Amino acid sequence: MRGRELSLADRLAALREAVGVAEGRLEVPEVGTARSLLAKAGAREALGDATVVALAGATGSGKSTLFNALSGAEVSTPGVRRPTTGVAHASVWGEHGADRLLDWLEVPRRHRVADPDPALDGLVLLDLPDHDSVRLENRLEVDRLVELVDVLVWVLDPQKYADDAVHTRYLAPLAGHSGVLLVVLNQVDRLDEAAAVACLTDLRRLLDEEGLAGTPVLPTAARTGHGLPELRAELARRVGARKAATDRLTADARAAAGALAGHCAPDLGPDRGPGRAAVDELTGALADAAGVPAVVAAVERSARRNGTAHTGWPLLRWTAKLRGDPLGRLHLGDERVRTSLPQAGVVQRAGMDAALRRARDDAGRGLPAAWRDELRRTSEDTEERLADRLDRAVAGTDLGPDRTPLWQRAAGGLQWLLALSALVGALWLLALAGLGLLQLDDVVPLPRVQGIPLPTLLLVGGLLAGLLLALVCRPLVAAGARRRARTARRRLTARVAEVADEEVLAPLAEARADHDRFCAAVGRARS
């Protein structure tokens, strides 16, 4: 069972939501058309419930004669004497705020029908300029008013009823407006009965092929009055219903939504964006462009330097200060200060561009061209600020605890003890040498260990043990440096992944979500 048809207010609200989502995203003319319709709807709803009916047609179709016959007076002069200013004429039945409505329509020539038929009370009938006029301003005026009136009566004649310009430019685009459109075949008095039937049959066929099967076709002869009662009755029915304006706006809203629906994708399925492979590729490419490998290498070299300084010979530790700290030279730790990392090279930029393109292509899979263009613009805007954002992310990343391991402290303490032992041995030997010069070396006994003088053992043993300890600690320091580098890489990659999500993936996902919201609103407006 079909649900209740959406009201005009709800339909316009849905269309307004779709236009709001599309603003700033879709650069397509259909959005401008929908926006103009919303402005028209707001103005028209505030101007009362009078019914504006326009007679449109080509030169010589008898449109003005038909207008005068319906008005009961010669309001519009037909033929070659007709004014060519491109201004429409209006006949008004009753009040219903017609002046405000005609001011909005910008129709200055107005005629109030004397003794109006009560059945037509509220009718505002317009005689438009000829759509095929040689004057451009006349044709532009027709195009403008055709978009604004509530009911359009297209007046054709037996000679030009199949004119391609009329059908292609005006009738076929109104395929969804059959409820607010009438087609009148005028001047049928010039045809015999068989020719009139053939002409009407062919016209009906043309309209059906153009999607206007629900549009009535009325034969008339304005000069003789043939068909005028039927036309008046049809107009009276439209006027009496007091819903022609609503019907026209509803048809316009559906048409505008139908045009916007061309920028909606069918069911996109479960694959809703960049896959894990594309995300990993993007994170890796951004990490390379941000200088993460350089930072990781600096972390490892810095940890080696510091570890070697703690576990190496104390007397040679000062030489490490001559080389400087590789990590300190990068100026990390403060997001407000630009790091000293080198700019991304050609290879890194190419990898980043390729990863961004793949993420964008994955996000745009299945979307119409207008939305893919929006994703491309979003991606280009992201690239402009991505370098600075990545640099600040790297600068502000906590690279892990920068503390000296206990074993290195213990090794460092042991090195000092060994150095002190060597120093004691050296001083002892110097003292013995001095005593020897004074020929007092026999006075002081010399302790020995396994026949080796103790001072010699302290000096040589301290030096050799210190060297051996340094050699043993070196691979342990290297292992610790690599471990800290892995921690730094993991944390830097996590920060880069956050930047990728915030600056690249989230905007792409938001654009896809906007597409879904846009299409849902369009679907409601079109239903």
From TrEMBL:
Species per Swiss-Prot/TrEMBL record: Geodermatophilus dictyosporus
Pfam families linked: MMR_HSR1
Highest classification ranks of the organism: Bacteria, Bacillati, Actinomycetota, Actinomycetes, Geodermatophilales
Keywords: Membrane, Transmembrane, Transmembrane helix
A GO cellular component annotation in the UniProt record: cytosol
Domain G: start-end pairs: 53-164
Membrane-crossing segments per the record: 416-438, 458-481
Record-level Gene Ontology MF annotations: GTP binding; ribosomal small subunit binding; rRNA binding
Superkingdom of origin organism: Bacteria
Protein name: 50S ribosome-binding GTPase
PANTHER family: GTPASE ERA, GTPASE ERA, MITOCHONDRIAL
BP terms from Gene Ontology: ribosomal small subunit assembly
